[in-house]
Amino acid sequence: MDYLKFIQRICLIASVVLVIGIVVRLFLPLIERQRELRARAAELRLDIQREAEALRMLRLKQARLQEDPRFIEKIAREKLGYAKPGETVFRFEDEDEP
Q1: Which end of the chain has fewer CB atoms surrounding its CB within 10 Å, N or C?
Q2: Is this prediction's pTM over 0.85?
């Protein structure tokens, strides 16, 4: 009689372990997918923060272009190579660039 209860307990434990193994096997890909999605969400949050900062800087530049004549002059001189009448503009080329 004691031998029969021992076998029943072993079968019960084996059944429970088997069910747990099946459940883990079924949900393991879902857990991995969730980890991947969380990592991707974190990357996207960082991208959003970078883009928000770039947008903020562009808005500041836009405001300065609309309000600050000295800034407009600086941009015209640096980016476009403009000069006031009577000034000479010197441009230097880097030797490293092809």
Answers
A1: C
A2: no
